[in-house]
């Protein structure tokens, strides 16, 4: 456990604020890569996922894509794109690979959020004379939001993990301290970097967890069954119980 | 393409090595997840605990987990044990949740019927609940197997040679086909293992509905992915 104390001392040592790669700079890079990649991926995947969820068309393709995506080794995709783009365009190549890795989760979150909605709610909207546009924005989007946030959450965590690995191709980020510590056999630095990465992932995960609870519309959360085991065989709940 | 043809034996050897390293985490993860998933399903108190802890473990990026495990367990950083244990942890994290969900998907009336005709808890679990939960458990096992195979490539960063070797070696030597072959080989291995699991499921659970896509999708969404 002494190693942990050393690692924590390493994190808070004044030297971390100095040098060519300071810890706050590395954290900033890590967050910036993650944020940009997830936002770009969301701009592509959310409209697409909503279109699939609303029309029900192209579902099989989306299912196949998100299934196959799990088999893609993220490290391999990163290296492949870096080689294809050329060494001069490393950041661009890396961001493209992060975006590609983030899209399937967000896509799945967007369309399955719509699919989980009780068809009767949508039919009721239509019967009341809502236009398709109103059904989309006033029924489907709000009710599908918790699952969409869940998809964004998975995507963000995946990107945080891949940005860590991307230190291997000299992209910076907190993974730098781990990768650079290996040849130096500096286990204090390796562990210190790892703890920062873990803290980063946990904080982001926690933020999304809170957000996921906040976006559940009030009427829905009131009628939500809290325990899976207590639900009857035929589910009555409007949305799937959100991930905790 | 010529690189691939010239190095088929290297790719084959690395593929076998890759499979060998992945099988133990998948099997071990499955076996360990059964009691954990049951505990999470059965008691309200432990449910939150187990699902929170496994969820948090799953959140830890792989490279960070490789760095933390040696300190906690006293193993070597650059070792296969480190990779295998880390992969097992991720597999358990995925499957504990899916087994808990799977047990929850069993119709309570069936459970009560089994109790009513005199099944004890142990026999009821193995002969009634576990088989009926089978299709959903299989879905979780497939997710875990495929992610483990893809994730194992990161092992090359802690000096464990498998298909990930093609990525680092290809990067150093700037051979695009080598890296591409690595990505394809990993995906093929994952695809084959996935197909074998589906086949095993059909043989072992002939009563199961053929289409569990809906459940799998929801499960996959909840599980997300790690890298």
Automatic annotation (TrEMBL), chain A:
Transmembrane segments: 31-50, 62-88, 94-114, 135-153, 159-179, 191-211
Membrane-topology annotation of the record: Multi-pass membrane protein
Domain ABC transmembrane type-1 positions: 27-208
Location of this chain's protein in the cell: Cell membrane; Membrane
Domain of life: Bacteria
InterPro entries xrefs: ABC_transp_perm/SBD (IPR051204), MetI-like (IPR000515), MetI-like_sf (IPR035906)
Pfam families attached to this UniProt entry: BPD_transp_1
PROSITE patterns xrefs: ABC_TM1
Keywords on record: Membrane, Transmembrane, Transmembrane helix, Transport
SUPFAM superfamilies linked to this entry: MetI-like
Family classification: Belongs to the binding-protein-dependent transport system permease family.
Protein name according to UniProt: ABC transporter permease subunit
Organism in which the protein naturally occurs: Protaetiibacter mangrovi
Automatic annotation (TrEMBL), chain B:
Protein keywords: Membrane, Transmembrane, Transmembrane helix, Transport
Coiled-coil ranges (or none): none
Places the protein is found: Cell membrane; Membrane
Domain ABC transmembrane type-1: from-to ranges: 15-197
Keyword rRNA processing part of the UniProt annotation: no
Membrane-related topology note: Multi-pass membrane protein
Pfam families: BPD_transp_1
CDD domains: TM_PBP2
Entry's transmembrane regions: 23-41, 48-69, 75-96, 132-159, 179-205
Membership in a protein family: Belongs to the binding-protein-dependent transport system permease family.
Name of the protein this chain belongs to: ABC transporter permease
Organism, as annotated: Protaetiibacter mangrovi
């Amino acid at each position: 456990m002494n190693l942990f104390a050393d690692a924590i001392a390493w994190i808070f040592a004044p030297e971390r604020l100095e040098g060519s790669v300071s810890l706050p700079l590395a954290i900033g890079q890590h967050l910036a890569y993650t944020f940009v990649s997830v936002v770009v991926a969301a701009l592509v995947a959310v409209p697409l996922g909503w279109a699939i969820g609303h029309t029900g068309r192209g579902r099989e393709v989306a299912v196949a894509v998100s299934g196959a995506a799990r088999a893609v080794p993220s490290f391999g995709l990163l290296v492949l794109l870096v080689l294809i783009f050329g060494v001069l365009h490393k950041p661009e190549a890396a961001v493209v690979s992060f975006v590609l890795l983030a899209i399937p989760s967000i896509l799945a979150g967007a369309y399955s959020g719509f699919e989980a909605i009780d068809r009767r709610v949508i039919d009721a909207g239509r019967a009341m004379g809502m236009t398709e546009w109103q059904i989309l924005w006033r029924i489907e989007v709000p009710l599908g939001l918790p699952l969409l946030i869940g998809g964004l959450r998975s995507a963000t965590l995946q990107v945080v993990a891949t940005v860590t690995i991307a230190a291997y191709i000299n992209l910076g980020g907190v993974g730098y301290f781990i990768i650079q510590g290996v040849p130096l056999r500096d286990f204090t630095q390796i562990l210190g970097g790892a703890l920062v990465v873990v803290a980063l992932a946990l904080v982001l995960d926690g933020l999304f967890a809170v957000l996921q609870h906040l976006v559940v519309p009030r009427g829905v959360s009131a009628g939500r069954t809290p325990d899976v085991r207590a639900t009857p065989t035929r589910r009555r709940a409007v949305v799937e119980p959100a991930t905790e | 393409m010529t690189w691939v043809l010239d190095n088929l034996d290297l790719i084959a050897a690395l593929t076998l090595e890759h499979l060998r390293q992945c099988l133990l985490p998948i099997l071990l993860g499955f076996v360990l997840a059964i009691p954990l998933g049951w505990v999470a399903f059965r008691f309200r108190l432990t449910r939150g605990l187990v699902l929170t802890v496994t969820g948090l473990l799953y959140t830890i990026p792989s490279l960070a987990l490789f760095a933390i495990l040696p300190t906690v367990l006293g193993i070597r950083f650059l070792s296969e044990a480190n990779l295998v244990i880390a992969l097992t942890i991720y597999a358990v994290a995925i499957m504990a949740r899916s087994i808990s969900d799977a047990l929850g998907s069993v119709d309570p009336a069936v459970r009560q019927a089994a109790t009513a005709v005199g099944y004890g808890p142990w026999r009821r679990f193995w002969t009634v609940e576990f088989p009926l939960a089978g299709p959903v458990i299989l879905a979780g096992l497939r997710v875990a197997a495929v992610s483990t195979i893809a994730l194992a490539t990161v092992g090359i960063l802690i000096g464990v040679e498998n298909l990930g070797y093609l990525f680092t070696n290809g990067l150093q030597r700037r051979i695009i086909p080598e890296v591409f072959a690595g990505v394809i080989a990993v995906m093929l291995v994952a695809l084959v293992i996935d197909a074998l699991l589906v086949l095993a499921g059909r043989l072992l659970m002939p009563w199961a509905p053929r289409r569990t896509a809906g459940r799998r999708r929801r499960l996959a969404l909840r599980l997300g992915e790690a890298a």
